Amino acid sequence: MFKRELTEWEERSDVRTVFAVDPGGETEDWTGNVGFVPTVLNEQPSPDNAVVVICGPPIMIKFTLPPLHELKFSMDNVITTLENRMKCGVGKCGRCDIGDQYVCKDGPVFTCAQITQLPDKY
To answer: Regarding beta strands 33-34 and 20-21, do their DSSP bridges make them parallel or antiparallel, or are they unpaired?
Structure first.
């Protein structure tokens, strides 16, 4: 996701964007939500046609997925990244393998439905 794309999404009437920063991460000009992402999610409605894109540190992603499941988001419509597992980025070192998937070649973007099919190694 690029900053310019987020700005374009915010301007659309058929797309609702929600941004949040951790407490202490806000600045004087910050107008979005302040709080941990799982808490902010619980304050949002879950429309039937929603797509969630999660990007952030692995621990934040880990704690964000259960509330999305509880809110009945389709795991095919929850998209996140696993780039924290990548090393060489071209499939040569094998450090990013999870089962038969290589994060650098088969991702790094995956739906949560795809992630649930990966071995527990992740």
So the answer is: parallel
- The per-residue pLDDT string of the chain (122 residues; one tens digit each, 9 = 90 and over) reads 677 888 888 888 888 788 888 787 778 888 888 888 888 887 776 667 788 888 888 888 888 888 888 888 888 999 998 877 778 888 888 888 888 888 889 988 999 999 888 887 55
118, 101 Cβ separation under 8 angstroms: yes
Buried b (16+ CB within 10 A) or exposed e, 51-83: ebebeeeeeebeebbebbeeeebbbebbbbbbe
Place of tokens 């951790």: 22
Amino acid found at 58: P
**pTM score over 0.70:** yes
- Report in angstroms the alpha-carbon separations of 107 from 17, 30, 79, 88: 24, 32, 11, 14
Q: d(Cα 100, Cα 8) in Å, to the nearest integer?
A: 37
